[in-house]
Amino acid sequence: MKNLIVILFLFLCVSIFKAQQTSVSVVKYEDLEKRIQQQKDKLLVVNFWSTTCAPCVKELPHFMEINKKYSDNPKFKMILVSLDRLVDKERVMKFIKNKNLTAEVILLDDIKRMNTWIPRFEKDWDGNIPVTIFYKNGEKVHFNDGEMSKEELEIIITKNLN
Questions:
Q1: pLDDT at 14
Q2: CA 36 to CA 75: how far, in whole Å?
Q3: Residue 9 falls within a domain, yes or no?
Q4: 55: domain CATH number?
Q5: Which of 29, 86, 100, 126 suits a disulfide with 117, CB 3.0-4.6 Å?
Q6: 160: Cβ–Cβ under 8 A, 6 or more apart, which residues?
Q7: CB neighbours (10 Å) of residue 141?
Q8: pLDDT value at 2 more than 70
Q9: What is the number of structural domains in the chain?
Q10: Is 15 domain-assigned?
Q11: pTM for this model (two decimals)
């Protein structure tokens, strides 16, 4: 019995560590654009957020619920793009751990060129966050400016995942 408890504990620990990132990739706009284009066979949910943005933090639990629901679907992928500063990378890592973020998180270190890359993502994006862009087979299918509810997320994903 004692061995069984130890095995279950180890399995739980491995599962938790597997679910959370241990590092955050730091990318420029061009790298992110390539990553999006490489997801040709998926519905890709890309959420732009920051640890200091209250609406962003408020909506993240909804994103994690949805990510968990679809995590076994090979046609679904979620990426959380942090717009925190590079000097705040450790804060982002702590945030990932504390909030139990299971979707992939990357840090977009390209603040100086925001006026260049923001309109390339969406001409109507004014730069405010949170923003979520949905891509299907590498093509943008929906742009959401502002906080999203779990229901809104679910509707857009269900509509585009088929």
A1: 41
A2: 14
A3: no
A4: 3.40.30.10
A5: 29
A6: 43, 134, 136, 141, 142
A7: 14
A8: no
A9: 1
A10: no
A11: 0.85
